[in-house]
From TrEMBL:
GO molecular function: hydrolase activity; metal ion binding
The organism's place on the tree of life at top rank: Bacteria
CC cofactor: Zn(2+)
UniProt-listed SUPFAM superfamilies: Metallo-hydrolase/oxidoreductase (SSF56281)
Signal peptide: none
Residue ranges of every copy of the Metallo-beta-lactamase domain listed in the record: 12-212
Keyword Hydrolase in annotation: yes
Region spans: Disordered: 211-233
SMART domains from the UniProt entry: Lactamase_B (SM00849)
Origin species: Knoellia aerolata DSM 18566
Keyword Oxidoreductase: no
Annotated protein name in UniProt: Metallo-beta-lactamase domain-containing protein
Protein keywords: Hydrolase, Metal-binding, Zinc
Amino acid sequence: MLTIAFPAAAFGTNCYVIAAGEGEECLVVDPGIGVEETLREVLTEHRLKPAAVLLTHGHVDHVYSVTPVCGGDTAAYIHSDDRYRLADPLGSASPGLVEMLEQQFGRAATWQEPSTVVEVHDRQRLTLAGLDVDVLHAPGHTEGSVMFGFDRLPDGVRAPEELDRTMVTGDVLFAGSIGRTDLPGGDGDAMQRSLRDVVLPLADSTLVLPGHGSATTMRRERGTNPYLRGLAT
């Protein structure tokens, strides 16, 4: 599975481009702030065409570039509980964040909702760009936070663990940490349930590609992540 990751221009949000191979259709996951130029370069280099945009949740640092990436008829996929956020993600952003965007990009921050939005739900299996994608609803960071699972590994993965699956976790699970729950729509109790009932059952053989920071594995997080240790499934 061809997998390219690069950080957005703000907040270090990871944008992922995933395809069955070179010259194929691809999935773009979480196109954040200022990713358009790098994304164009990636698509051109690998001869890829976006078939869909997958959004792990509706925060502005994960969805800011979704509309220019989607273009005309490419759909954006988001959980129904976060669908409302696509109406105006800047509206819930702090004035300081909006000011930062304007300073960094030299123009007023604007937003236009993507023309085609598909709502996903828990335990749904999508078939997109020749790939099967499992949707796991894991609220807590936001109401509609999800993780996207693939029964494949990125090309060239070398790790001491036996790995056989990939999970794009958004802001649910990071290497050594989890997503914050003190923002609007966050819920600490819901996050604890998601960690216990959705994250912990993931096999140790799962490669974790988070929304921020470096990749990790479930084996590593189960043994070292302080937010997982002590939880019981």
